[in-house]
Design a protein that fits this description.
The protein is of the alpha/beta class and 703 residues long. It has helices at 2-23, 33-40, 51-70, 76-112, 121-128, 132-169, 174-223, 227-232, 235-277, 279-326, 328-333, 337-389, 395-436, 500-507, 530-537, 552-557, 565-574, 578-583, 601-613, 631-645, 680-686, 689-702, and strands at 459-467, 475-484, 489-494, 515-520, 523-524, 538-542, 619-623, 649-653, 665-670, 673-678. It folds into three domains: 116-277 and 413-439, ABC transporter type 1, transmembrane domain (ABC transporter transmembrane region fold), CATH 1.20.1560; 279-392; 459-702, P-loop containing nucleotide triphosphate hydrolases (Rossmann fold), CATH 3.40.50.300. The strands form two sheets. A six-stranded mixed β-sheet has the order 6-7-8-3-9-10, sandwiched between helices. It binds adenosine-5'-triphosphate (ATP). The site of adenosine-5'-triphosphate has 12 residues, from helix 14.
Length: 703
């Protein structure tokens, strides 16, 4: 809407001077603006509507009035009219920018609600350092452009004075008189254009490179954090750091350097110019301008709050849609499409209402700004006219004053907007830096050793106590001890939530025990190289294997990035996957879809087994690897698993007791402890918890 207004205004600004010329005739000497205004300000002939039009017409008629009385200066019509229009058009644009700013920045303000860590300058310096030359170049060019901007109003004034003098004295030809200052001004515009282009190019290069480096470093830092970190932080929030926060920081960074520097230089410079042109008028401006800018900032911050709430509501609606679309199979399985639709519609309606309120607020703000800002132009012309009439000022000076005061006004307004942007940018940067300086409690590499001897594959859990970092008060394992003898299969069974998967997580070193130690071949696994341990020693297959959205070949190769095609095919054969893979038209190049949706559960599981086997691990952990499969898939997968477990130390966590009856040792876990252990037959003969579990499962199977 406001952009539309701006464009309309610009069109008007271009077309007005033509009609303006017909109203003016020659003028010379002094302007009688103030007297004229006093006489005409109450006339009913002013057109209704936009205050800009009123100022426009008053200005036109003032000049007409003045010119008709002194009848000497048609040149002024070319200068003052467009100048007033340009100034007003800029004001409209600025309001429009405020609106855009409110809307664009609000989503990131949602993030602002989180606790904001300290901004670490030394981290910023690390990113800026490689771009220092380009940055200094951008600053110098931006400063140069700002300095020229201070010069331009003065030169415009000179131009007006030259024209006025020519009209008064008629000495020489008009073109000769005006040529010099006009060419100077043109040159200044050209240089300013070049400087602006230069600093924007350099700045955008610096901004993009800093942002790209930050993204890469942040992603590297996140991906290296341990599992506990991901338990405590939502993925969406982390992705937000990579996207929205860095984007926000980049925009602020660029804005502060370009606009901040420019606005401060221009404000100071133009104020000096204003004072030199007319101390009296400057005094008036000093009183009025800050009041208006302050009021604008207060209303602006209220609107930003409204905008933030509206954006929060939009985010809520998006969350609903995201969840529904992300879990579309579950939604369809429960025929919940209508309910999801209603939920989404409800949230969207709320956001629509809030955005309408925001639109109303912006409209009122724009209306008030227009009136206030145009009043300043009018006031300046009014007061300036008085000074001209008393010979204290020339028309050119008034022109210079008008343009310079608008530059100050624009600069002050952008400083106030900039302040909010700086706060948002620094908060966003601080949140990004917070994650950059995080050190994982279990570092993936560095310091850990890799044993020289070939592994025997014995694992000892010794007196382990453990609580998850996100639930420190809840002890999941209590003085838990267990030995996995080399090349033997040990199964853990027991009640749900008893801590079975936690044992596997400790072996993978996703977490470190609170007390006790996990040993591999007699070595504390905390002293071993983690990348080696996970990458080469332990193979892990769980209930819901997650595949990446690439080809089958790439998914199997994920287990060993340097594996040859022959190794991939061999691993697929061992895991009973080769035959079904070859039945696809694209064979190993078949794409598996997002998270492997284009494959059946059994197929995914066999790819996951191949992925684990390709690294030829000494220890294999199967966490309920077949519990999600139907009987036929389970048979094929089980066959693959039986082959895979040969000659390896195996830890099986199982729900279906039928799959672990051949294990060398079966441990029954309850409440974080092993309460029974033995072979299948030994445990059956004991008639304890295990035989209870077997009985219950058989009974369920017969139902
Ligand atoms: N990441 C986690 N953060 C906090 N608590 C957790 C986490 N994972 C599991 N727990 C808790 O630890 C306890 C043991 O969970 P675990 O998954 O080891 O049990 P389980 O015996 O494997 O259960 P199931 O047979 O149902 O898979 C449970 O109370 C569970 O709520």
């Amino acid at each position: 809407m406001s952009q539309l207004l701006c464009s309309r205004l610009c069109v008007t600004a271009c077309s007005r001077p033509l009609s303006f010329s017909s109203l003016c005739s020659k003028t010379g000497g002094k302007w009688k603006l103030s007297r004229w205004y006093t006489a005409h300000s109450h006339t009913s002939t002013q057109p209704p509507g936009n205050p800009f039009h009123r100022i426009w017409n008053l200005t036109q008629r003032a000049i007409h009035h003045s010119s008709s009385r002194t009848s000497k200066s048609p040149g002024l019509k070319f200068i003052l009219g467009p100048a007033v229009l340009t100034v007003s058009a800029r004001l409209f644009c600025r309001v429009a920018c405020c609106e855009a700013d409110d809307n664009n920045n609000a989503p990131e303000e949602v993030i602002l609600k989180d606790s904001v860590p300290d901004f670490k300058w030394h981290i910023l310096w690390e990113f800026v350092k490689p771009q220092l030359f380009a940055l200094i170049g951008a600053v110098v060019l931006a400063f140069g452009a700002a300095m020229l901007n201070i010069q331009i109003p003065l030169m415009l004034g000179d131009l007006v004075n030259v024209v006025a003098r020519y009209l008064r004295e008629h000495s020489g030809t008009y073109v000769n008189e005006i040529k010099g200052p006009a060419i100077k001004l043109l040159g200044l515009y050209a240089i300013q254009g070049l400087l602006t282009t230069g600093y924007i190019i350099l700045l955008s290069r610096v901004g993009e490179r800093v942002a790209a480096d930050m993204r890469k470093t942040l992603f590297a830092s996140l991906i290296r954090q341990d599992v506990a970190f991901f338990d405590a932080n939502k993925t969406g929030q982390l992705v937000n750091r990579l996207t929205a926060d860095i984007q926000e920081f980049k925009s602020s960074f660029k804005l502060v350097i370009s606009q901040g520097l420019r606005s401060i230089t221009q404000t100071v410079g133009c104020f000096v110019s204003l004072y030199i042109i007319s101390p009296k008028l400057t005094g008036l401006t000093v009183v009025v301008l800050p009041c208006l800018v302050g009021a604008g900032a207060i209303i602006g911050s209220f609107l930003r709050k409204l905008s933030r709430l509206a954006q929060e509501q939009v985010a809520k609606a998006t969350e609903v849609a995201d969840e529904a679309l992300g879990n579309v199979r579950t939604v369809k399985a429960f025929a919940m499409e209508e309910r999801e639709l209603q939920l989404y519609a409800h949230e969207v309606d709320k956001s629509c209402e809030m955005n309408e309120n925001l639109g109303g607020g912006i409209a009122v703000f724009q209306g008030l700004s227009n009136v206030a800002l145009n009043c300043i132009v009018l006031g300046t012309i009014f007061a300036g006219g008085t000074l001209i009439s008393s010979d204290e000022m020339s028309p050119g000076d008034l022109m210079s004053f008008l343009v310079a005061s608008q530059t100050v006004q624009r600069s002050l307004a952008s400083i106030s907007i900039l302040f909010g942007q700086v706060v948002r940018g620094m908060s966003a940067g601080a949140r990004v830096f917070e994650y950059l300086s995080l050190k994982p409690t279990i570092p993936l590499s560095g310091g850990g050793r890799i044993p020289f001897h070939s592994l025997i594959g014995r694992v000892d859990f010794m007196n382990i106590s453990f609580s998850y970092p996100t639930r420190p008060g809840h002890e999941v394992l209590k003085k838990f001890s267990l030995t996995l003898p080399p090349c033997k299969t040990v199964a853990i069974v027991g009640e749900s939530g008893g801590g079975k998967s936690t044992v596997a997580s400790l072996l993978e070193r996703f977490y470190d025990p609170t007390n006790g130690v996990v040993m591999l071949d007699g070595l504390d696994i905390r002293t071993l190289d983690l990348a080696w341990l996970r990458g080469q020693v332990i193979g892990f297959i769980n209930q819901e294997p997650v595949l990446f959205g690439s080809s089958i070949m790439e998914n199997i190769r994920f287990g060993k990035p340097d594996a040859t095609d022959a190794e991939v095919i061999s691993a697929a054969k061992q895991s009973n996957a080769h035959r079904f893979i070859m039945s696809f038209p694209d064979g190993y190049n078949t794409m598996v879809g997002e998270r492997g949706v284009a494959l059946s559960g059994g197929q995914k599981q066999r790819i996951a087994i191949a992925r684990a086997l390709i690294k030829n691990p000494s220890i294999l952990v199967l966490d309920e690897a077949t519990s999600a499969l139907d009987a036929e898939s389970e048979r094929v997968v089980q066959e693959a698993l039986n082959r895979a477990t040969r000659g390896r130390t195996v830890l099986i966590i199982a729900h279906r007791l039928s799959t672990i009856q051949g294990a060398d040792l079966i441990c029954v876990m309850s409440n974080g402890r092993i309460v029974e252990a033995g072979t299948h037959l030994e445990l059956l003969s004991k008639g304890g918890l295990y035989s209870d579990l077997i009985r219950r499962q058989r009974a369920e199977g017969q139902k």
